[in-house]
């Protein structure tokens, strides 16, 4: 059964268009996540990045894979309906946490995010075998002026498109100027709303031309039992109808797994980068 804030029309829209906006789903969790974002900004993690080149205006900060050390993030992952909603969209009784990601575009930030699909950052195994849902959460009202996401409906039906690495090192759809010829839909949202993205949803975000911040976070989930697409990273069940499957019950246990995985990756100089798709 769908979550009480997610109806059959939402699920149908997600399957048809690759994206759906659900109003008010995160209203009870925004304040707690804001505390976590402030904590994250004061103490960035090892994957934090400043995404502007010299001469580009504003500031575009992002960071991810911190919820094992940010208690507010961990609490919301546990308490919120995000996992239940992701499970409904993937028709699964169990889902695994992939990671969390925060993005902050300060006023006047000239840099957009290029057209891409979230599945493009997965390993080839993950690209083929993994169902994934991104739960995108705004902490400021998002508009065209302050850099909201935009999408083209039904492109998810095409599967994974060819991607390249652009001059900024970002993954983007090859020949993405073709997408610009199609009608784009602005994903404007209010605080408390969420935007749910299919792994093949084609989307990007605009520059922030306003005098206000644009702050967002996203949570990513995959169907339990499927590869995460970033195999060296630990994952665990966050929702299961059978409690015996919930082997990790607090972030300290997760942190132990994370450190074990990190130490395993260091000798191989693993950099969380995979070959981007070119033959799909």
Task: Give an account of the 3D structure.
It is a single chain. The chain is of the alpha+beta class. The protein has helices spanning 8-17, 30-42, 71-79, 82-89, 124-129, 251-265, and strands at 19-22, 49-50, 60-64, 95-105, 113-116, 132-138, 149-151, 163-165, 171-173, 185-187, 194-198, 203-205, 214-223, 237-239. Strands 1, 2, 3, 4, 6, 11, 13 and 14 form an 8-stranded antiparallel β-sheet that branches. Strands 5-12-7-10 form a 4-stranded antiparallel β-sheet, with no helix packed on it. The chain has a two-stranded antiparallel sheet with strand order 8-9. It is globular and about 45 Å long. The model is unreliable at 266-280 (pLDDT under 50).
List keywords for this structure.
disordered C terminus, 8-stranded antiparallel sheet, 280 residues, 14 strands, 6 helices, 4-stranded antiparallel sheet, alpha+beta, 22% helix
Number of DSSP helical runs = 6
The average pLDDT score comes to 84
Shape: globular
The percent of residues in helical segments reads 10-25%
- Sheet of most strands: 8 strands, antiparallel
Strand percentage: 15-25%
Distance, first to last CA: 34 Å
Spans where pLDDT lies below 50 across 5 or more residues: 266-280
SSE string, helices as H and strands as E: HEHEEHHEEHEEEEEEEEEH
